[in-house]
Specification:
The protein has about 180 residues and is of the alpha+beta class. Helix content is about 40%, strand content about 15%. The protein has 2 domains: about 40 residues, no CATH class; about 100 residues, no CATH class. The structure holds zinc ion (3 copies). The site of one zinc ion has 9 residues, from loops.
Protein backbone atom coordinates (compact mmCIF):
# COMPACT_ATOMS: atom_id res chain seq x y z
CA UNK A 1 0.00 0.00 0.00
CA UNK A 2 1.33 3.45 -0.93
CA UNK A 3 1.74 5.73 2.07
CA UNK A 4 -0.15 8.98 2.27
CA UNK A 5 3.05 11.02 2.40
CA UNK A 6 4.37 9.65 -0.88
CA UNK A 7 1.09 10.50 -2.64
CA UNK A 8 1.40 14.09 -1.42
CA UNK A 9 4.93 14.27 -2.75
CA UNK A 10 3.98 12.76 -6.04
CA UNK A 11 1.15 15.23 -6.55
CA UNK A 12 3.24 18.15 -5.25
CA UNK A 13 0.73 18.99 -2.54
CA UNK A 14 1.66 21.43 0.21
CA UNK A 15 0.28 21.47 3.76
CA UNK A 16 -2.43 23.97 2.77
CA UNK A 17 -3.48 21.88 -0.20
CA UNK A 18 -3.93 18.93 2.05
CA UNK A 19 -6.83 20.60 3.80
CA UNK A 20 -9.01 20.35 0.69
CA UNK A 21 -7.51 17.99 -1.89
CA UNK A 22 -5.82 16.09 0.87
CA UNK A 23 -9.06 15.40 2.62
CA UNK A 24 -10.59 14.06 -0.57
CA UNK A 25 -7.52 11.90 -1.20
CA UNK A 26 -7.65 10.69 2.36
CA UNK A 27 -11.23 9.60 1.87
CA UNK A 28 -10.43 7.84 -1.40
CA UNK A 29 -7.57 5.92 0.20
CA UNK A 30 -9.71 5.02 3.16
CA UNK A 31 -12.26 3.56 0.73
CA UNK A 32 -9.55 1.68 -1.15
CA UNK A 33 -8.37 0.20 2.15
CA UNK A 34 -11.93 -0.74 3.09
CA UNK A 35 -12.37 -2.50 -0.26
CA UNK A 36 -9.12 -4.42 0.20
CA UNK A 37 -10.22 -5.56 3.63
CA UNK A 38 -13.55 -6.72 2.17
CA UNK A 39 -11.78 -8.63 -0.62
CA UNK A 40 -9.45 -10.37 1.84
CA UNK A 41 -12.35 -11.27 4.11
CA UNK A 42 -14.34 -12.69 1.22
CA UNK A 43 -11.35 -14.70 -0.07
CA UNK A 44 -10.81 -16.10 3.43
CA UNK A 45 -14.46 -17.10 3.70
CA UNK A 46 -14.18 -18.95 0.36
CA UNK A 47 -11.14 -20.98 1.48
CA UNK A 48 -13.27 -24.09 2.13
CA UNK A 49 -14.92 -23.87 -1.30
CA UNK A 50 -11.54 -23.50 -3.01
CA UNK A 51 -10.30 -26.64 -1.27
CA UNK A 52 -13.44 -28.56 -2.18
CA UNK A 53 -13.19 -27.50 -5.84
CA UNK A 54 -9.54 -28.57 -6.02
CA UNK A 55 -10.34 -31.89 -4.38
CA UNK A 56 -12.94 -32.43 -7.11
CA UNK A 57 -10.20 -32.01 -9.72
CA UNK A 58 -10.72 -28.35 -10.55
CA UNK A 59 -7.86 -25.96 -11.26
CA UNK A 60 -7.89 -22.44 -9.79
CA UNK A 61 -7.06 -19.67 -12.25
CA UNK A 62 -7.11 -15.87 -12.06
CA UNK A 63 -10.61 -14.70 -13.04
CA UNK A 64 -10.65 -12.42 -16.11
CA UNK A 65 -13.53 -10.48 -14.60
CA UNK A 66 -12.49 -9.80 -10.97
CA UNK A 67 -8.79 -10.84 -11.23
CA UNK A 68 -9.01 -12.96 -8.08
CA UNK A 69 -7.55 -16.46 -8.07
CA UNK A 70 -11.05 -17.86 -7.87
CA UNK A 71 -12.00 -19.12 -11.32
CA UNK A 72 -12.50 -22.86 -11.21
CA UNK A 73 -11.89 -24.92 -14.35
CA UNK A 74 -13.46 -27.13 -15.75
CA UNK A 75 -16.53 -25.92 -13.87
CA UNK A 76 -16.09 -22.58 -15.66
CA UNK A 77 -17.18 -20.28 -12.88
CA UNK A 78 -15.65 -17.78 -10.52
CA UNK A 79 -16.38 -18.43 -6.87
CA UNK A 80 -15.59 -14.80 -6.03
CA UNK A 81 -17.69 -12.77 -8.51
CA UNK A 82 -19.83 -15.58 -10.06
CA UNK A 83 -18.51 -14.79 -13.55
CA UNK A 84 -19.13 -17.73 -15.84
CA UNK A 85 -19.35 -18.51 -19.53
CA UNK A 86 -18.40 -20.90 -22.32
CA UNK A 87 -14.73 -21.95 -22.21
CA UNK A 88 -13.90 -20.24 -25.53
CA UNK A 89 -15.22 -16.94 -24.21
CA UNK A 90 -13.39 -17.25 -20.91
CA UNK A 91 -10.16 -17.99 -22.79
CA UNK A 92 -10.66 -14.92 -25.01
CA UNK A 93 -11.37 -12.66 -22.03
CA UNK A 94 -8.40 -14.11 -20.12
CA UNK A 95 -6.07 -13.18 -23.00
CA UNK A 96 -7.24 -9.58 -23.08
CA UNK A 97 -7.85 -8.97 -19.37
CA UNK A 98 -5.18 -11.06 -17.62
CA UNK A 99 -2.46 -11.44 -20.25
CA UNK A 100 -3.11 -7.88 -21.41
CA UNK A 101 -3.13 -8.53 -25.16
CA UNK A 102 -5.71 -6.51 -27.04
CA UNK A 103 -7.41 -7.39 -30.32
CA UNK A 104 -6.23 -3.99 -31.55
CA UNK A 105 -2.59 -4.83 -30.77
CA UNK A 106 -3.00 -8.16 -32.47
CA UNK A 107 -4.12 -6.53 -35.71
CA UNK A 108 -1.56 -3.71 -35.52
CA UNK A 109 1.45 -5.88 -34.80
CA UNK A 110 0.30 -8.91 -36.72
CA UNK A 111 0.74 -11.22 -33.75
CA UNK A 112 -1.20 -14.44 -33.54
CA UNK A 113 -4.06 -14.44 -31.04
CA UNK A 114 -2.79 -16.99 -28.46
CA UNK A 115 -5.96 -19.09 -28.45
CA UNK A 116 -5.90 -22.55 -30.01
CA UNK A 117 -7.82 -25.81 -30.35
CA UNK A 118 -7.04 -27.99 -27.34
CA UNK A 119 -5.23 -31.22 -28.30
CA UNK A 120 -7.15 -33.05 -25.59
CA UNK A 121 -10.80 -31.86 -25.68
CA UNK A 122 -10.58 -30.18 -29.13
CA UNK A 123 -12.42 -27.05 -27.96
CA UNK A 124 -10.88 -23.72 -28.96
CA UNK A 125 -10.08 -22.76 -25.39
CA UNK A 126 -6.36 -23.47 -25.13
CA UNK A 127 -4.37 -20.37 -24.19
CA UNK A 128 -0.68 -19.88 -24.81
CA UNK A 129 0.43 -18.21 -21.58
CA UNK A 130 3.83 -17.36 -23.04
CA UNK A 131 7.26 -18.87 -22.54
CA UNK A 132 7.89 -17.01 -19.28
CA UNK A 133 5.25 -19.02 -17.45
CA UNK A 134 7.38 -21.47 -15.46
CA UNK A 135 4.92 -24.22 -14.48
CA UNK A 136 3.14 -24.61 -17.80
CA UNK A 137 2.87 -22.76 -21.08
CA UNK A 138 -0.52 -23.91 -22.37
CA UNK A 139 -3.74 -24.07 -20.39
CA UNK A 140 -7.16 -25.22 -21.57
CA UNK A 141 -10.13 -23.38 -20.06
CA UNK A 142 -12.45 -26.21 -21.03
CA UNK A 143 -10.79 -29.40 -19.72
CA UNK A 144 -8.19 -27.81 -17.43
CA UNK A 145 -5.32 -29.50 -19.30
CA UNK A 146 -1.83 -28.03 -18.85
CA UNK A 147 1.24 -28.49 -21.02
CA UNK A 148 4.82 -27.31 -20.77
CA UNK A 149 6.53 -25.46 -23.61
CA UNK A 150 8.23 -28.59 -24.97
CA UNK A 151 5.14 -30.81 -24.75
CA UNK A 152 3.15 -29.29 -27.62
CA UNK A 153 4.09 -28.56 -31.22
CA UNK A 154 2.34 -27.07 -34.23
CA UNK A 155 1.47 -29.67 -36.88
CA UNK A 156 3.07 -28.74 -40.21
CA UNK A 157 0.04 -30.17 -42.03
CA UNK A 158 -3.02 -28.74 -40.28
CA UNK A 159 -1.37 -26.06 -38.14
CA UNK A 160 -2.97 -27.22 -34.91
CA UNK A 161 -1.14 -27.83 -31.66
CA UNK A 162 -0.56 -31.48 -30.84
CA UNK A 163 1.21 -33.48 -28.14
CA UNK A 164 4.77 -34.04 -29.31
CA UNK A 165 5.01 -37.51 -30.86
CA UNK A 166 8.53 -37.07 -32.30
CA UNK A 167 7.00 -36.55 -35.75
CA UNK A 168 6.31 -33.13 -37.21
CA UNK A 169 2.67 -33.88 -37.91
CA UNK A 170 -0.19 -34.65 -35.54
CA UNK A 171 -1.66 -38.14 -35.14
CA UNK A 172 -4.82 -37.42 -37.13
CA UNK A 173 -2.84 -36.01 -40.07
CA UNK A 174 -0.49 -38.99 -39.80
CA UNK A 175 -3.42 -41.44 -39.86
CA UNK A 176 -4.93 -39.61 -42.82
CA UNK A 177 -1.64 -39.79 -44.75
CA UNK A 178 -1.09 -43.47 -43.97
CA UNK A 179 -4.65 -44.41 -44.93
CA UNK A 180 -4.71 -42.39 -48.15
CA UNK A 181 -1.42 -43.84 -49.45
ZN1 LIG B 1 -14.29 -13.41 -10.69
ZN1 LIG C 1 -9.07 -29.02 -23.39
ZN1 LIG D 1 -2.30 -32.08 -38.16
Amino acid sequence: MVSFLSIDEELGLTKQDRTSEGMILNKIWQNVCDIEVLITERLNSLEGEFEKAQKNGNVLMPCPSCRQLALIIPENKCLFCYYSGPAEKIADKYISEVLGISHYEKIKEGIQWPQHDCPSCEIESLVDMGKHNKDFRYFCFSCGGKWRDDELKFCIECGRLFEDNKLCICNSCYDYKVNSD
